[in-house]
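Quick one, T. Sequence first:
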Amino acid sequence: PATIVGIPPQEDAWIGWAIERIFLEPIRKVIAPEVVDIWMPPEGVTHNIVVCVIEKSYAGQAMKVANALWGAGQMGFNKVMVVLSAGDVPSGTSGRGYFEVIREQLHRFDPERDVLFSRGVLDVLDHSAPETGFGGKMCVDLTRKTPEEGGERPYRKAIPLRIVWDDFVEADKKLQQSDLLWLAAGNVDPERDITVKDGILQIDARFKPQAVKRGWPNVVTMSLPMITRVDKRGREYGLDPKRIP
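Structure tokens:
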């Protein structure tokens, strides 16, 4: 038996969701008791993106949690951690519902004050890291801000975020938001490719073969005959490819 990693969702998604549930309680009991929930979106292929919800009670707590989790076993492979306040998360929110919360909180995001850049271990599958298994990390603090942190940020009509893509990515009208998030998460080293300029978080999500010594992989693809063959066999087993999530 074997599994093959590909464009999400593939086995990473279901393995990641199992990891979330299995390790949530040990994390709360041993490492960070303020953690309410953890979500690993499929686009982050387990190690690139983690969303963490906390019961916040003091300044700097989001950064404290990020540092604690980055030092906890395989959670140390995480590259980008987004931290939310439990009070901003509607009851019953889980999974993709967190994207709506994140989008809303980004309107109160101040890149100058609400980002922590760090360095540390990364998954060896992270092709964007300057060195195998070692590179930049980033925590995005979207929690409610205490007076010591400057208080709540003013609401901005435009989210202070700018992403630079390759021309061929810009031209591909078939790409969905989930595809773009997957590409950005995989193509970015936070220390090298993310900067704050004029109050805007600028992300260089382009392919950068010149930035790493070991080579830059192409986007995983299958041949059309293989896709056709898999779809045909799937129907033989009663599986409609259009209904597979």
